[in-house]
């Protein structure tokens, strides 16, 4: 097989041009006001928004602050609003934008500085749903005399696997109008994580989690807008998880009712 | 300055740090000595670079496999520059750690009968690599992070940048950390400290690593007199995406992917890895399942011979998965498909992926004994930042995720035992060291004009590392890189930063990371220059040095910090108690080696 064709096809894709982006700045040391700052940058077909921010940081303005790390859409650090839509900076490419590009910090979180938001409430919500295997007994530590794993068939794995792919980037919280109104709402990622463990054949913790899930700030705050699933960069589909969670919560209430 | 007291402080919230925290908590429970554990990380734990590991974690699993076989693979993979007692401990504790991960909920991929599935990996005699699709590190990290939430005795300090260790009379007494959100310093007094701060791939321009992989923990220990060991051994992963260096997992080849040069020829058969294995029938330790050092070196040779293709400005070869079929590719390698499509617009189901080697892993690091303790009492290190002696001159793929667990746990347990028998030091000692750090920060941000640009220095560092300490090295190139690092270290004293804000000052962090990088880059260059032989990932083109020289260099390099003066190098004997150095043989040359 010759690879010459592929080579030829790819070589000519890098046409450099200039793009203009506006970044919302907030420097609480100096002012309580936010303002827009404009930057012109050289870009080519491969330039991601994160590449652009790094270019600004190193070449144009070293005071711009933002989070980033893996640059391959798996660490979840670099969420920002791009023209009003929550996106990962590293997986957003400037080639896909005509005209103005406006960058703001993720919505619905307190802004610490520039594009950096306070994720503390998000972390609290994750911890609240007991996101770990809960057994009838505490999970046994490894016993060298009986080094056994649980059995789990590919079908059992497939039931929850998609919901285990959340990278905790928080985009779904910025997309969620309910979280915007009420930060106490556990929100899409935490509810999805709870659902992931509830669906795991190795887990017996559904009852323990239900106290958190089956309340106003749990699944019942979701009004099924579904924007969370649209913005999810990993196709986790939190809206599906939350609504399956509602069914579970309703069942739990009914059962409790009949049991008196 | 805020001051807090903990029994154990763990620096780094990746796989090793989290496993150490849980290990310490369990150990404390077992001893009946309640202990407070602080877990500090410059990022939220789930952002740590463990998250980007893809392929899997190795442990002897099948009935036909043996500990001896995993030991032999690791020792020869490391070109005999390993601590054999450590490898022996590792292979015997690997399986139980992966089982423990399973019992904590890690979504390992499964066989139809519900048992954990294993896949082939490079340099391993048999399939022994556990995996969770091609996001193994991601799932391990999240499982560990989520499990750590069960332990109220673990208190997290997310987005705290540790500036320095506090050391008094040869023992660690705490750490000094900067709270990134406020710019305030916090003193954490401790009876034991575990460093789990990751590698230093960002010393190089073209790498697979996250931006945070800057070697800070290595520099911290080094500046307090702990040796950095075997720092000349830097792993080039053979398959990174052109342009970015984003990792394309070795599991692609474990599952049957093949490497082609621009003529569509499987060139690895020309480099001691053949004969060619049939398409779709990968064989352990043959062809594409050779070790990473040999594969990256083969790329370089093909490049010199003009048989590489082009992708943009990059010389590339091609990783072809198409014969595996769409269903299998999407089941086993979904993340690879996502990455190739997003970052280079190639669908691996339909086209070969252009790839090239990229710096991936730091084999060397903070020297520890087999119990993870450094030469400073109470200071432990585990994971990529450490040199416990597992990887030698070349790490085998899928040994490092297991390493995080085996040695993360061990370091945590050791720290807990030590803390149970130790008292806190006088807090005034810590305050004095805190004041020194504060003064240093004030100097960097004193508002005077910068005579030197940290951006320029950083670019000079990564360029010099790449040009002088790449896949093949020469005396002249390494000498130039070493001289460059020494000049850059001097120039760094004139760096000032523009951003005088206290809140989330990432320019300050970049500068501090660069300063760490320059210190350890000098150690890496010095080790490389002084090792006048070729072994594993350290290959020299100089005459008389193109072969391994066990007479003179079956020794670890140890580099010691000397402040503003040049670093010093010593040699240390290798623990070769079980297996005498032999020829590393792959392909048919290694035939007859049985499990």
For this entry, give a set of tags:
heterodimer; A: Ubiquitin-like (UB roll); Fumarate Reductase Iron-sulfur Protein, Chain B, domain 2; 2 domains; two-stranded antiparallel sheet; 7 strands; B: 595 residues; alpha/beta; Flavocytochrome C3, Chain A, domain 1; 5-stranded mixed beta sheet; Beta-grasp_dom_sf (chain A)
Protein architecture, described:
- The complex is a heterodimer of chains A (260) and B (595).
- By secondary structure, chain A is an alpha+beta fold.
- Chain A folds into 2 domains: 14-117, Beta-grasp domain (Ubiquitin-like (UB roll), Roll), CATH 3.10.20.30; 120-259, Orthogonal Bundle (Fumarate Reductase Iron-sulfur Protein, Chain B, domain 2), CATH 1.10.1060.10.
- In chain A, 36% of the residues lie in helices and 14% in strands.
- Chain A contains 10 helices and 7 strands.
- Chain B is 35% helix and 18% strand.
- Chain B has helices spanning 15-31, 67-77, 84-103, 136-148, 216-223, 251-254, 292-304, 326-332, 334-344, 399-420, 427-444, 454-468, 475-492, 506-530, 550-553, and strands at 2-5, 8-11, 37-41, 57-58, 118-119, 129-130, 154-158, 160-168, 171-179, 185-189, 192-195, 228-229, 234-240, 258-260, 309-311, 314-320, 353-362, 365-367, 379-381, 386-387, 472-473, 539-540, 555-560, 568-573.
- Among the domains of chain B are: 2-56 and 135-235 and 361-431, FAD/NAD(P)-binding domain (3-Layer(bba) Sandwich); 236-360, Succinate dehydrogenase/fumarate reductase flavoprotein, catalytic domain (Flavocytochrome C3, Chain A, domain 1, Alpha-Beta Complex), CATH 3.90.700.10.
- Chain B is globular.
- Classes of the chains: A alpha+beta (260), B alpha/beta (595).
- The interface between A and B is large, with 73 and 80 residues.
- Chain A: Its cofactor is [3Fe-4S] cluster; [4Fe-4S] cluster; [2Fe-2S] cluster.
